[in-house]
Amino acid sequence: MPIAKILLVDDHPALRQGLAQLMSLEDSLDVVAQASSGEEAISLAVQYEPDIILLDLNMRGLSGIDTLISLKNAQVKSKVVIFTVSDNESDVLQAIKFNTDGYLLKDSEPEELIEKIHLALQGEFVISSPLTQILAQSLRSGSKKVSQLEELTQRELQIVKLIASGKSNKEIANKLGITDSTVKVHVKNLLKKLALKSRVEVVLWAVENKISQ
């Protein structure tokens, strides 16, 4: 398994050190740099080209969201996952709006954090479990999307359930005995039918409609 390079961005040195120690227990993860500010993070991201950046939301100086925007504008290819204490709905939605690759809470269990990092590296949008219901409620109160369950084919419904359970396209393909490209076509079609824009919205839609594996 290739070793993933990680950049930690947080203005609390003790937290960064604790995270670095946790990552050091994983052979496949390597903390290549640490930043105490958004400005430093942008410079280090360009220098080290990490595979994933764990980014605090509330920092002195450049905020996490502003740092996220600046990283995207600088065409940094790294996955960027917000890592914060805030479970505020507006913070989560704003991070998603600016194309974060995940939103994880600092009180996550170490095992869950490591698991989510690996999923993010595989291209999955990751979010701490307690936030799923918060976002589902947000969709219920603010969304006008028409997303009828009966619009989906049986295969598309299977794929929705697998996406909701955190499976990647490759894992879905293996489970259903189809190719990755076929899965991508199904995902594209079901997104159009449900008037959704991303896999994370599929997860939230599945939660809202009580669709389980």
From TrEMBL:
Positions where 4-aspartylphosphate occurs in the chain: D56
Gene3D superfamilies named in the record: 3.40.50.2300
One Pfam family per UniProt: GerE
Organism superkingdom: Bacteria
Phosphoprotein as UniProt keyword: yes
PROSITE patterns for the chain: HTH_LUXR_1, HTH_LUXR_2, RESPONSE_REGULATORY
Keywords, alphabetical: DNA-binding, Phosphoprotein
Limits of the HTH luxR-type domain: 145-210
Ranges of residues in domain Response regulatory: 5-121
NCBIfam families the UniProt entry points to: PRK10651.1 (NF007935)
PANTHER family reported in the protein's UniProt record: NITRATE_NITRITE RESPONSE REGULATOR PROTEIN NARL, TWO-COMPONENT RESPONSE REGULATOR
Protein name per the record: Two-component system response regulator NarL
